[in-house]
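Inputs:
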Amino acid sequence: MAEDIAGRGDPIKTLQLMWGRVDTPKRGPKARVALTDLVQAAVRIADAEGIDAVSTRRVAEAVGISPMSFYTHIPDKSVLLDLMLDAVSGGDYPMPVFDPAQWRANVTMVASEFRKYYIAHPWVLQVSTHRPVLGPNTMKSYEVFLSALDGLGLDEIEMDMSVTMIANYVFGAARDVARSRMVKEQTGMSDDEWWYAIAPFLETLDYSPYPVASRIGPVVGELYGLGDPDRAFDFGLERILDGLAVMIEGKGGP
Amino acid sequence: MAEDIAGRGDPIKTLQLMWGRVDTPKRGPKARVALTDLVQAAVRIADAEGIDAVSTRRVAEAVGISPMSFYTHIPDKSVLLDLMLDAVSGGDYPMPVFDPAQWRANVTMVASEFRKYYIAHPWVLQVSTHRPVLGPNTMKSYEVFLSALDGLGLDEIEMDMSVTMIANYVFGAARDVARSRMVKEQTGMSDDEWWYAIAPFLETLDYSPYPVASRIGPVVGELYGLGDPDRAFDFGLERILDGLAVMIEGKGGP
DNA sequence: GCACAATCTCGTACGGTGTAAAGAGTTATT
DNA sequence: AATAACTCTTTACACCGTACGAGATTGTGC
């Protein structure tokens, strides 16, 4: 049940697989399945049943080979995770053309697209990439993010750090959004039911050590009900855009 | 190797354990170990060897009981994870008293404290809490965050959403900071060595689909070397503070 | 055609995991 | 003394990732 760690396998081999740079062998029998079959089967399992359900045996079975034949195609499971991450990275949409004059709308669009992507593949939020996954789709995501901030007078480092900041925020916020959906599916207990179940206990607690929280909590439903993650996402994004605007306007603007 | 999921066990039982609300049984032999012994042993293992090393058997062995005796004290592993999370939540520092006039410094302090906390216990970043961990320490963290934003003219919902935004950003940014440290410890390969190993391959790629990235990447070392996560953290935090300032000043300020 | 090397596939096996089930021992109540 | 409540333990099961080695299949060089 530990965290899946991507980027642990042989880096070069992983990159070769990710970019399709493996020259098909001359001799020996033809492979019965392709690499993408395995990766897509794994993604399907993860989408449907969560990342816990993805085992080398399950994936092998899904494509119709024996458990150990998995290792003919993929060195080990951590490489599979890298491949899965790049396979779905950033979702599937055409490369947009951005007008710098409307950079707020552009960033909002990219951030929302990423939030959608995380919600479509919530297991991505659970796989901790300990190295950057330098695959084609991941690079495309970086490119899209950067493009939304291009032409605003920022230097290279400011652009990169801004992308990092936005991406980090979206990642964190998407966790909140995906959380309630995943738990409901896996436990059959909705957020409301959960809060209702624990409410009697919460009423017995002494909140005097938390004066501010006990003033704020009940209002927003953080203590007696979940807040609205969609609204919180938009709110945080607006603050971040305001912060970027201060910097961009300080540089002369778009 | 899947993600650890906290908050799956019986909610009430988890809360009772977390708040020490289990009335000591009248009959039967005295327990040889206390709940906190188990939790602290688990935290020690996770701090030293990562969350993967935390198994019910390991924890039981660490406190000197047999594997299955673990379940006498804790219903299942997911509850242990909840208890671990609250045990370390937010780090260990006295409750500060904030001057609203210096709210930027206050928020910076809290954010930095949380970053330190994540780096001290990087496994926290890997455990996905599917429900809020409503323990005393987690509540204290929420209280501290809220206090740093108190007295600025924000309403309850704005305060809560601001805390959520900052916390989400810190969480995401701390992942970047903790990443290189963890990988170096676990693989013995530093970031530089890793980039050096894959550089020959990266040079064979066609970057024409990524015009902006290939302009930015080499400068910031995102494509040919890792950026500086500490600097990126400070940069992002400044932007977020700027964004909050816009809202706070729009309300009349502190 | 034939030997050989390369390659895919597979069966077996090992040490690990979480935890269900059932029993043995200990303590306080009746 | 009997019993209920409780802790601790042993055994067992199904799963996991994957090391190892044995066929089976294909192309190459003679």
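Chain B has a mean pLDDT of 90. Flag for discussion at group meeting.
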